[in-house]
């Protein structure tokens, strides 16, 4: 597979090589994924869509092509992640290991982007979420929970703009994300989710 030489291309090539070095059965067991031994492929779900990922070549077959950022996120989980059951607790970004280091970037890339994209458009947000595996939350003015991958939940909480205050938001992650991804990965996951939401909204 030809890798584009850009900010995502080099990480993609790096993690592809790491993935090839892994044992498929060990990866499946560590990540809690079904393994088709005959096909040499694991089955993964991203935002409600199921993909077959072959080993060692990382051929991904699913309902729609993945972006490089999405491919890198899947690879990061396969290479270094570990499945763990959630406890039901949701954490802010800064509560994760190294979250303080990347907090400013995450706030700008994800929290503020979410707030100002939908702070005056709650109806659009609701229509978008109907197209995702999302459930409505009672928290905030317009809250939703999305499953990024099985067992890994993301809560998007939105407080709408009014005459006095701009919109405000918070993004929370189920506590088992700490075993699956690093803080930097969480920022990328937020980007991926918001990009998917934007694509859905553009088609409505």
* Alpha-carbon distance between the two ends: 33 Å
Kindly state the mean pLDDT as a whole number?
A: 93
Q: Which series of helices and strands comes N to C?
A: HHEEEEHEHHEEEEHH
As a whole number of angstroms, the C-alpha radius of gyration is 17 Å
In short:
With about 200 residues, the chain is α+β, with helices and mostly antiparallel strands. The protein contains 7 helices and 9 strands. It has helices spanning about 10-20, 25-30, 70-80, 100-120, 120-130, 175-180, 185-200, and strands at about 35, 40-45, 50-55, 60, 90, 135, 140-150, 150-160, 170-175.
Helix-strand layout with pairing:
Blueprint: H1 9-21, H2 24-31, E1 35-36, E2 41-46, E3 49-54, E4 60-61, H3 68-80, E5 90-91, H4 99-118, H5 122-129, E6 134-137, E7 142-149, E8 152-159, E9 168-174, H6 177-180, H7 183-202
Antiparallel strand pairs: 1-2, 2-3, 3-4, 5-9, 6-7, 7-8, 8-9
Helix pairs in contact: 1-3, 3-7, 4-7, 5-7
